[in-house]
Amino acid sequence: MAFLFRNRNKPDLAKMVKDLLPRLSGPQSSHKDEEEIAKLLAQMKLILQGTHETESSPEQVAQLATSIIQEDLLQPLAQNIHLLPFESRKDTQTIFSYVLRFKPANSTAVDPPAITYLVEIKPEIIIDLCRGYDHRESATPCGIILREALKHEAVAAVILYNDALEGKKVLKVSEIEFDGKQTGEGIFWNFFAWIDRGAFEVSTDAFTTFREILTKHKALVSAYLATNFDFFFSKYNGVLINSTSYVTKRQSIKLLGEILLDRANYTVMTAYVDRGEHLKLCMNLLRDDRKMVQYEGFHVFKVFVANPNKSVAVQRILLNNRERLLSFLPKFLEDRTEDDQFMDEKSFLIRQIETMPPLPT
User: Fold this and answer.
1) Strand runs (DSSP E) across 211-337, as ranges?
2) Which of 49, 167, 296, 301 stands 20 to 30 A from 240 (CA)?
3) Nearest to 310 by CA among 262, 359, 254, 343
4) Is 146:129 a contact under the CB 8 Å cutoff?
């Protein structure tokens, strides 16, 4: 294996891969090009990671990582990863993720150079990584790279706040207007379709990234949801909660409960449970014929009932359905007898509904 570390001048590897990648989508694409790119990517991965027999050289690692950024290799890798063979896609994922973490030994910067490059110089790369969900082949590797990048709040901001159509200018993080309302044309809104209508591997990975975007950086997301409340929850409820996919529906209800019960989202939670139409949606989930959908729906329903400052609309719905709820809830998921917390919460909700005043206040 040691010969792999001596064959070429290391900074040249990035340029060689960059020069070869456009051939994959061209009319003259050949298996030979795939093989050559595969060899180069495998060599780059070995330089960055080393092997069981040979440790990586810090000097060579720094040289290659810097070259990858300077040669602007990250963008063509993101754009062409779906065209690569399976092992090369895995190698690209490893290389990309490593470079995103890499910090020079003498660096005093808060973020790794690649993250700064992504959010302040080439935010298009972040959008290209998201578009990896357009292809089954690139969904998983691009998702893993995105979640590595999403450890940094600025990356989440670029995804959430870029509201331009495909092909239009992508905003750097320093250009974002954080109080601006979204139109639904930006890359973030594509996640709803990827999750709801994508192939299984696309949907599953896209949801994992979607969840990371909405839960990792709490202050950023709380402000975003408050500003875009109506548009976001109209899409969330209409597309994800009402999805015909059992997995998507269940995961989305669970995530909704997590978002509403997070203290950072208190303002969002109070606005959500104020709406009568949201309560009706949750009550329908309680009647679903799938027990786990019922269970996840219960954890959203309880937020409405436990709220001490219920809106008139919510009070009216609960009062109009009081007798039916008091008949329904005692038998609701009654086989979960070993789940003490659930049984206690159900008893609490029954008491809350029983003791509501006869008229809205």
Assistant:
1) none
2) 167
3) 359
4) yes
